[in-house]
Specification:
The protein is α/β, with parallel strands linked by helices and 534 residues long. The protein has 22 helices and 19 strands. Helix 14 links the parallel strand 17 and strand 18. The model has no long low-confidence stretch (mean pLDDT 94). It holds the Pfam family Glu_synthase.
């Protein structure tokens, strides 16, 4: 099968595969010979008997998902540039300019009142089972690390214990729990817990409730995400919960109040309902009114998260964020998600990371050149390690101050939780047991955390949180090493010149210099025996 950008008709994400492994049509993804009598293992075949269920990645509730599409450009098409000369942000002294001295702290917000120890954030984990089941690890780990965490959409509407009166939320269990878990472990004022809202959340008054009842200062408006261009979805296996969500105004398929649907569900004809959120209708007038209303309600910081929409929508997002003085704008490119995004949609819609992030930089620079306010920018789209974080910060410098990550942190929290469970039942796999049999032996940060928090407090921390904290610690050290090699000892000194494009196409799209054109003027001075860089 010739190389294509996309895989079609068979994927681990939809639990499907082709009958033949190599003889496939590059156009359709079908086996070259589709045989009468095949049981239907491919996506077409499975769709013949499970229909719309095969639209979504499976098994729902225990996975995060990401596109298999190979884009023409990605962050691997850029290399980080180091230098042997000088230092920025520290004295150019070999005894002082060592990588542990790199400062990764970042301040943001209109008053610089939000402080993060590390330049990344989890930009929206909502009502999915994968988020709820790992929230302890995500919240406590993020708080201990001093980074940000965003409570995503539909958490209140999905809470069966939420009390709603006259269409407005007046009490909730899950949102309270999520906020408290973070705040209880927040240290020295670092980090922030952010509450996001979509159409349904706004109707329920979630932001106002979070501000007035739960003491939340930082709230977020949501236009979309990089995984899909429709509203959020989850699957519901309980009839009564599906009916509750239907009565709360969600789109639930099939209709859980229809007697025929109820009978079909009860006899096992299908096992899951789909709950869908509505799409928003953006206009500048409604956006301005909403921001004003939130500020009057007491919101201290306001952010906007937008997705991988077309360039005109990206321009609207940054223009609105600039005009109405938002504190943060998160731009999430195509390719991944933490919930139930339609699989083909996740692969085939939206602007990919390099293109979207490059356009964002271009629009931000245009505003800055005109003397306009530019909010702190956050890039999101499959970032998982320190080299990608460096590249994202550099590509968007000086406007990008944070990188948004979700799947990586969730994976770290899940692994930490799994190891903790294995320790409790004394069934550690050999791969892990070689490091020891206790969390103090297995988790490399346990010793420092125990010393800092004390024995009693340390023992209360779930291993999911230790897993996330340890993952963050690894990335922080790796990022410090990369920045030290580029002689940048604070984030404010990072520039686009810290990157080089490996191809002409990458250079054209991003505006980052092609490798062979890098330092041309300086090289000319040096080889002409003129003084080079200090």
């Amino acid at each position: 099968m010739k190389e294509t950008f996309s895989r079609i008709n068979a994927s681990a994400a939809t639990l499907t595969k082709n009958r033949t492994d190599e003889s496939l049509s590059s156009l359709s993804g079908m086996c070259v010979t589709c045989v009468d009598g095949c049981i239907g293992m491919c996506e077409i075949g499975k769709s013949a008997y499970r229909g719309h269920e095969v639209i979504y990645p499976q098994p729902f509730g225990v996975i995060t998902t990401a596109s298999e599409k190979t884009y023409p450009l990605d962050y691997s098409h850029f290399n980080i540039m180091g230098t042997a000369v000088g230092a920025h942000g520290i004295e150019a002294d070999s005894d002082k300019a060592v990588f542990p001295a790199v400062n990764l702290e970042v301040s943001l917000g209109h008053d610089k009142g939000i402080k993060f120890r590390y330049p990344w954030i989890i930009p929206g984990i909502g009502s999915t089972d994968i988020a709820k089941n790992n929230w302890e690890g995500l919240a406590i780990g993020s708080a201990l690390a001093g980074t940000g965490l965003t409570i995503g959409e539909n958490v209140v509407g999905m809470d069966p214990e939420a009390v709603i009166k006259n269409g407005k939320i007046i009490d909730t269990v899950d949102l309270k729990r999520r906020i408290k878990l973070y705040k209880d472990y927040q240290r020295d004022g670092y980090g922030a817990i952010i509450v996001q809202a979509n159409v349904e959340d706004t109707r329920l008054g979630v932001h106002e409730y979070a501000i007035n009842n739960l003491g939340v200062e930082f709230i977020e408006l949501k236009w979309g995400q990089g995984a899909k261009d429709i509203g959020g979805e989850v699957k519901i296996k309980n009839l009564k919960k599906a009916q509750m969500l239907y009565k709360r105004g969600y789109v639930v398929l099939p209709n859980p109040t229809d007697p025929n649907v109820i009978k079909a569900f009860e006899r096992g004809a299908f096992k899951e309902f789909e709950r869908h959120s509505r799409i928003g209708m953006v206009s500048e007038e409604s956006f301005a009114k909403r921001v004003e209303k939130l500020r009057k309600a007491g919101a201290k910081y306001i952010s906007l998260k937008t997705g991988a929409y077309r360039p005109a929508d990206l321009a609207r997002a940054i223009m609105f964020a600039s005009k109405y003085k938002l504190d943060l704008l998160t731009v999430d490119a195509a390719g991944g998600g933490t919930g139930m995004s339609p699989w083909r949609m996740m692969n085939e819609w939206g602007l990919p990371p390099i293109e979207l992030h490059s356009l964002l930089y271009k629009y931000a620079q245009h505003l800055a050149d005109k003397g306009k306010y530019v909010p702190t920018l956050v890039l999101a789209a499959g970032f998982t390690f320190e080299d990608q974080i460096f590249k994202g910060l550099s590509l968007g410098a000086p406007f990008v101050k944070l990188i948004g990550m979700a799947r990586g942190p969730i994976a770290a929290a899940m692994v930490g939780k799994t190891i903790g469970n294995a320790i409790e039942i004394n069934q550690l796999p050999v791969y892990v047991e070689r490091f020891g049999n206790t969390k103090d032996e297995i988790f490399v940060t346990a010793r420092s955390l125990r010393k800092e928090l004390g024995d009693d407090e340390f023992e209360k921390i779930p291993t999911g949180a230790i897993g996330l904290y340890t993952y963050y610690e690894r990335m922080a050290q790796g990022l410090r090493q990369l920045m030290c090699g580029s002689r940048k000892f604070t984030l404010e000194h990072m520039t686009r010149n810290d990157l080089a494009a490996l191809t002409q196409e990458a250079a054209y799209v991003s505006g980052i210099r092609y490798l062979m054109d890098l330092d041309k003027d300086e090289v000319g001075e040096i080889v002409s025996s003129k003084q080079g860089r200090h």
